[in-house]
Amino acid sequence: MTTTPAPPTGGVEVEVCAVVLAAGEGRRLRPLTEHLPKALCPVGNVPLLDRALHRVAVLGFDDPATVAVNACYLGDQVVEHVGGRAALSVEPGDPLGTSGGVANLRPWIDGRGVLVGNADAYLAAPDAPPGPDVAALLAGWDGRTVRLLGQPVDGPPRPGDFGRHRFAGFSLLPWSRVRDLPVEPTELVHTVWRPAEAAGELEVVEFSGRYLDTGTPADYLAANLHAAGGGSLVDPTAEVTGGHRAAVVGAGAVVRGTLERCVVWPGGLVRADEHLTDAIRVGDTLTVPAGG
Question: Could you name the CATH architecture of 2-212?
Fold first, then answer.
């Protein structure tokens, strides 16, 4: 495995498209994902999927010919939300996983390399806006190797790590690794990343910013609080008369009680007699603890 330094500039040498994976059930985020698919859960009052689509749009993948989104769990919500911004691949039955989802898009990918991003990945680089923060994956690519965005690991590596790095939400795949992928429930770590690593054809591009996969209530809350910049982020249409410290309050929410390290989804209600800490509020009754 090769660790590739992130160059400041550089162009793509082969034709590339982008795929944003948004089909997953988000089981670890239940009961939040009983209301919305994980890809549409808001972080910093912006749906995760919109964050991912913006990130690749800045790199030039900004229409149905260049970017695709897959959907399955609560897929009608994803399809409606995406509209005409991207090509759509709706998987019947259960989600196909990261590898099966890419394989199902093979006719659309059609010989191109593919930048694959997880919709649930929250990334924030200290020195680059969304888009340029992952552009190093594309810089100078020869169209043959597999590239992963990797966050440096503090402490002993875990079994799922790649050397001294942990996968950070985006990878770049050559067509040679995509054309024979099975259209069945499988994951890229098994079908592409590890085989490429074993063959000496995997490069890790280091990402020095903050990465969270938002897969648990604790990480989802952490991503929201990071997006709020250490303070509170309140949508202009929210009605907030209670106190708040380190909170994210969505559009049309009403907060009469107090919040500390909390997220209130759009349209949520916090009553005057409520004090919420380390929690996510949905509607007027659902409170999901997110501490620890």
Answer: Alpha-Beta Complex (3.90)
